Structures are given as C-alpha cells and as structure tokens.
Amino acid sequence: MSPATANVQAPLTLALSKGRIFEETLPLLEAAGIQVSENPESSRKLILPTSDPGLRLIIVRASDVPTYVQYGAADFGIAGKDVLFEHAAQHPGGLYQPIDLNIAKCRLCVAVREGFDYEAAVGQGSRLRVATKYVQAAREHFARKGVYVDLIKLYGSMELAPLVGLADAIVDLVSTGGTLRANHLMEVEEIAHISSRLIVNQASLKTRAQALQPLIDAFAKATADK
Ligand code: PRT
Ligand code: MG
Predict the structure, then answer these.
(1) If we measure between CA atoms, which residue out of 164, 109, 116, 102 comes closest to residue 134?
(2) Cα of 210 to ligand 2 centre, how many Å?
(3) In testing the pocket of ligand 1, which one of 20, 190, 191 has its CB within 8 Å of the most ligand atoms?
(4) Which of ligand 1's atoms lies nearest the C-alpha of 80?
(5) Which numeric CATH code is attached to 12-105+195-225?
(6) Among 49, 97, 131, 175, which is disulfide-ready with 167 (CB 3.0 to 4.6 Å)?
(7) What whole-number distance in Å separates Cα of residue 69 and Cα of residue 196?
(8) Is 196 exposed, middle or buried (0-12, 13-18, 19+ CB in 10 A)?
(9) Which atom of ligand 1 sits closest to the CA of residue 182?
(10) Could you tell me which HAMAP family the record lists for this protein (predicted)?
(11) Rounded to a whole number, what is the largest CA-CA distance in the chain?
C-alpha cells in the first residue's frame, strides 16, 4: 500500500476535552449516526474508537485542543471561544472555524468580592489587580475601557484570588453563578458570551475533504436542528 493510500484510509481524528464538551458533543455525534461506547471519565484511554471506523476521538485538555488541530495531530476538534481567543493570540490564523455548535455555553465576566466598590476603584484610575486564566481577553477588555490593570496569570480556582488578597478582581467563566455565590463574589461586568466551535485543520480540509465534509455538514445540521 502506498503511503498516500494509507493516509486516505486512516480514520479522521476529532479532538475533544472530557467533561462538558464531551458530554454535549455526544448528541451531535449521535445525530450524525455515530456512537461512542466508552466514557473518558471512567476509561483511562486517550484514544477512543467510535461506531464509525472512519472516525476516532482523542481526549486532551480543553486548552490543548487548538494545538492538536493546528499541528494536524487531529483533523478537527471542539473548543470554547475562551480557549480559541487565548490560542489565537499566540498562533494567529491557522484554524478554520466553520460552525458555532452552541454547546458548553457560559459567559466571560469580571467579578469582585461582595461589597467591593468596583465602579469607584475603576473611576479613581488606580491600578486594578486582576487575576485570570484569560489574560488576552482580560487585557483587551480593560484596554477598551481605558482601565489600567496588573494582570496575574492563574491556571484555575480564580475565585480564590480576591478572597485571600491576591487580586481585586477576577476574569472568569460563569454559567449558573453558583461558584461565585458560594465564594461571596459578585459579577460586575460581562465581557463576552461563550460557546464552543468546531475547528478544522486547514490541510485536512483540503486533503481529506471527502471524509471530513460530510461530518462538518452533519455537525451543522445537528446544531441547526437543536
Ligand atoms: O478543567 P481544565 O483545567 O482541564 O480545563 P477547563 O476548565 O478549560 O475545561 P472544562 O472542561 O472545565 O471547560 C471546557 C470549556 O467549557 C471551557 O473552555 C468553556 O468554553 C466551557 N464552559 C462552559 C465552562 C463553563 N461553562 C464553566 N462554568 N468552563 C468552565 N466553567 C467553570 C468556571 O471557570 C467556574 O470555575 O465553572 C465555574 C463556574 O460555574 P458556575 O456554574 O458555578 O457559574
Ligand atoms: Mg474546568
């Protein structure tokens, strides 16, 4: 078999993160007639077969999905706009983003300790200390407002930062608001609505269009039908 033939027959690889994105992608795959029998929460496997021999899944960290797709280790993937925005700042271009799947919805917000006078702090023109995992989005937001900020990069549990004096404010994702409430924080500004998009490797789109396009179309249809 020539290498070219082998390539055509290799299954397409879809990169997903476990948790909400995996859970909310399953119905979209099912609408396309594809079942996944293993659950990454209980299985330790990082490569999961599907009922379609032409498609396999790889399970990676949410923020690594664009990297796998950009380098072609996955033909396509699903990632939140929060993740895509941070990725694009480091790697402009490179990813085709054909469909907003409208899944894993939340919003990117500024939050502070209950009782903290955010408007006054911003109005005084003093530098605000802001802790976040979303440094690019936060930098753009405060630059647009003309507010000086010192950004502190964190990798998780942002909600803790204002409680222990690490920061005045956080920029974080909120869905139900339960985590903010449980930690006596309040939302003071909404920066963006977030949902997840299908992202596709540019080269795969050209060389594997025959296999890939029907799946892209099926995702588009399943999303529109929801
Ligand atoms: O967990 P890990 O560090 O591996 O990565 P991750 O947190 O980026 O992954 P994951 O699977 O938690 O989230 C994947 C994607 O889901 C994100 O990139 C978002 O696009 C989307 N999403 C939707 C969310 C939420 N809703 C969400 N609520 N991602 C995170 N959260 C967190 C939020 O950061 C906060 O800590 O949930 C908490 C708030 O939730 P509520 O319901 O209490 O408001
Ligand atoms: Mg998480």
Answers:
(1) 109
(2) 35
(3) 20
(4) 20
(5) 3.40.190.10
(6) 131
(7) 15
(8) buried
(9) 43
(10) HisG_Short (MF_01018)
(11) 70
Pocket probe mutation, ligand 1, options 159, 163, 174, max atoms within 8 Å of Cβ: 174
Tokens read off for 192: 């963006």
Cβ 70 under 6 angstroms from ligand 1: no
Fold classified for 106-194: D-Maltodextrin-Binding Protein; domain 2 (3.40.190)
Helix, strand or coil, per DSSP, at residue 93: coil
Q: What is the pLDDT of residues 150-194, one digit of tens each?
A: 999 999 999 999 999 999 999 999 999 999 999 999 999 999 999
- Report pLDDT digits (tens) over 211-222: 999 999 999 999
